[in-house]
Specification:
Elements (H helix, E strand, L loop, with lengths): L13 E5 L3 H10 L5 E5 L5 H8 L4 E3 L11 E6 L4 H13 L3 E4 L12 E5 L2 E5 L6 H14 L4 H10 L11 H22 L4 H14 L6 E6 L10 H9 L2 E4 L5 H4 L7 E4 L11 H13 L3 E6 L9 H9 L5 E4 L4 H8 L13 E5 L1 E2 L2 E2 L4 H4 L5 E5 L5 H10 L7 E6 L7 E6 L3 H8 L5 E5 L4 H13 L1
Parallel strand pairs: 1-2, 1-4, 2-3, 4-5, 8-11, 8-12, 9-10, 9-11, 13-16
Antiparallel strand pairs: 6-7, 14-15, 16-19, 17-18, 17-19
Helix pairs in contact: 5-6, 6-7, 10-11
The structure holds S-adenosyl-L-homocysteine.
S-adenosyl-L-homocysteine binds next to strand 19.
């Protein structure tokens, strides 16, 4: 980020603009929304600008800019549409201590003016550091359509009501009140009765919230999917939006945590101190403690919480304290990975069942029905299978599996650094050792990437 966005207090301060044509007018239209004192300096001044001056919105000085003109100015705009003149006036303003913007000259400007969605006092500023003005315009159009026009009025009236809402306890209760006001009761009252209907609606709503019984905490066990934030469900997003506390796994990506409500407390349950895992009992206690404090706890697990997620232990801990909970499913690594190699988990005339197996369990390397898996056409998605690759390979070969059975390892599924490695059962262990994967990886036994499979089939035809 080369430009840090801030909202500058300009009420009663000077903003000086040099230029009197179209570029100047475009900037002035924005600047006139502020309570700053505007001065326009230029030898030629367009009629519209004169009209604004006549209406008392700005002051004009009809000559070229001179030293002294930008004294005490907070901001200065060079908008002469003439590079040499812009450079000259910018140097003057700079020497006089103003922050300088040269229209259409990012490199020599000290600040830039964002695209604005104006629901005063709610203002959304959009900037792309000059990289993609088209994108900024599209985002602005999208927000303009989405934010109710009454939002500004509601925010203004809401502000006068803030003290009254102090009777509600800080945190979720207050937040619930405001979100109901801004997105439900407020717009409705405004629509029905106009501005005068808003304050009574606030009072009625506050009464209802004061008399409502103390809300209790609850826990959402949420699937975060394999890493790509677009693979989150809408329910998961909504839960993250409302969470007071997010307790997440080691495998949940930063990009997804970014989506959590800004005030939410984020706890990494995958690490403690210098990287050792938090014990399951400690995680259970953490979830319970926050829920008993009346918080909305999101227990965020990679993939789907019901797949190798130790979900049941956590549910038992929560129900032991009569804490209500929901399970919000996510896309498990196997689903995302199989999509990544263009295959199906099940396929008519190939496999009518698929196994999700783990490479190791609490007792060490996990045992499975190797004999059944060794049959031709069987498919298994192996989670946590890196360390146990040699063991799995040995068991399957011992039970008669074809050494040429395709095996595909997918690391960092759905992320920018996803890696697909196609091999065979015979080569599984050496391939994995050579690849030395650092990220999470899932192994498909019995599936090759669609392209590789197509190539192999063609080769067989020629054989
Ligand atoms: N609940 C998770 C699985 C947790 S077990 C799910 O439904 O996906 C952890 C194992 O899941 C990892 O060892 C790895 O085998 C697999 N896994 C999870 N996320 C992955 C990812 N993004 N890419 C590859 N494998 C992943």
């Amino acid at each position: 980020m080369k430009h840090f966005p801030i909202f500058l207090a300009v009420e009663g301060r000077r903003i000086v603009l040099s230029g009197g044509g179209d570029a100047a007018m475009a900037k002035l239209r924005l600047l006139m929304k502020t309570q700053a004192h505007l001065t326009v300096i230029a030898p030629q001044i367009a009629d519209d600008i004169r009209k604004w001056a006549a209406q008392g919105k700005l002051r004009i000085i009809e000559r070229a800019m001179e030293p002294g003109d930008a004294l005490c100015a907070a901001l200065f705009y060079a908008a002469n549409e003439d590079d040499a003149e812009d450079a000259r006036v910018a140097a003057i303003a700079h020497a006089e201590g103003a922050l300088v913007n040269i229209v259409d000259n990012l490199a020599d400007s000290q600040f830039i003016t964002p695209a604005i969605v104006d629901r005063d006092p709610v203002t959304v500023a959009i900037g792309t550091e000059g990289a993609a003005p088209v994108l900024a315009r599209a985002i602005k159009a999208d927000l303009e359509a989405r934010l109710p026009t009454s939002l500004g009025v509601l925010a203004r009236i809401g502000k006068t009501f803030r003290h009254a809402v102090d009777v509600l306890p800080m945190g979720r209760k207050r937040r619930d009140f405001w979100s109901e006001f801004y997105f439900n009761h407020g717009p409705k009252a405004f629509e029905d009765k106009g501005e005068t209907g808003v304050l009574p609606a606030l009072e009625t709503l506050l009464d209802a919230h004061i008399t409502a019984k103390q809300s209790e905490g609850h826990v959402d066990f949420v699937g975060a999917g394999p890493g790509d934030p677009e693979l989150l469900t809408l329910k998961a997003r909504n839960a993250l939006d409302k969470a007071d506390v997010v307790i997440h796994d080691r495998l949940v990506t930063g990009e997804i945590l970014e989506l959590a409500r800004r005030e939410a407390i984020i706890i990494d349950a995958g690490k403690e101190g210098f990287g050792a895992s938090m014990s399951q009992a400690a995680i259970d206690a953490l979830i319970v403690q926050h829920a008993l404090d009346g918080h909305h706890v999101v227990r965020l697990k990679a993939g789907d919480p019901t797949v190798f997620g130790r979900l049941d232990e956590e549910i038992e801990a929560v129900t032991a304290h009569d804490i209500p909970y929901r399970i919000i499913p996510g896309i498990t690594a196997a689903s995302a990975a199989v999509a990544g190699i263009g295959q199906s988990l099940t396929k008519r005339n190939r496999n009518s069942a698929v196994r999700l197996i783990t490479g190791h369990d609490t007792k060490g390397y996990a045992d499975h029905d190797w004999k059944a898996l060794a049959q031709p056409g069987e498919v298994a998605a192996i989670y946590m299978g890196k360390k146990s690759a040699r063991f799995i390979q040995g068991r399957l070969l011992m039970h008669g599996a074809d050494p040429a059975t395709p095996v595909t390892i997918i690391e960092n599924v759905s992320r920018a650094d996803q890696q697909i490695i196609a091999t065979t059962l015979a080569q599984l262990e050496p391939t994995l050792t050579r690849a030395d994967l650092k990220g999470p990886a899932i192994t498909f036994y019995g599936l090759a990437p669609r392209d590789a499979q197509a190539r192999a089939e063609t080769l067989q035809e020629f054989a």
